[in-house]
What we know:
CATH architecture: Orthogonal Bundle
Shape: globular
Radius of gyration: 16 Å
Largest sheet: none
Helix content: 55-70%
Distance between the termini: 40 Å
CATH superfamily: Ribonuclease III domain
Strand content: under 5%
Amino acid sequence: MESEHDFVPVVDDRLSRCEALIGYQFSDRHLLRSALTHASGAQHRLASNERLEFLGDAILGSVVCEMLFHQFPELLEGHLTKIKSVVVSRQTCAKVSADLGMEELLIVGKGISADKPVPNSLLADVFESLVAAIFLDGGIEPAR
Length: 144
């Protein structure tokens, strides 16, 4: 059984690998650790990615809205809303996470089996959490 001390190098390796994958170096690595930590792997719920997911959802929506607004000046609000809903959907966020290999970097508890595929909902949550962590660490520009 791993002690908390033995677990630290494993987590540090995951954090470094994540930074390499996303191309962003965190000043506050606690934010990154929280972003990668599912509630099942947290010592308490405030240490999980749930709050970051909440913020990341709003940031992602805002960034995508601004991008669509400028990219498609001829489209009406209804069309922009439809495009946004696809771009920020759980399915899209999960695919981006999977494409980045986030399933190997997640910090989860015993309730989530290593030999089963990571649920798309969890992959989507980690993507939103990463957006928030980057925003809190470096501001809106790196989060884009």
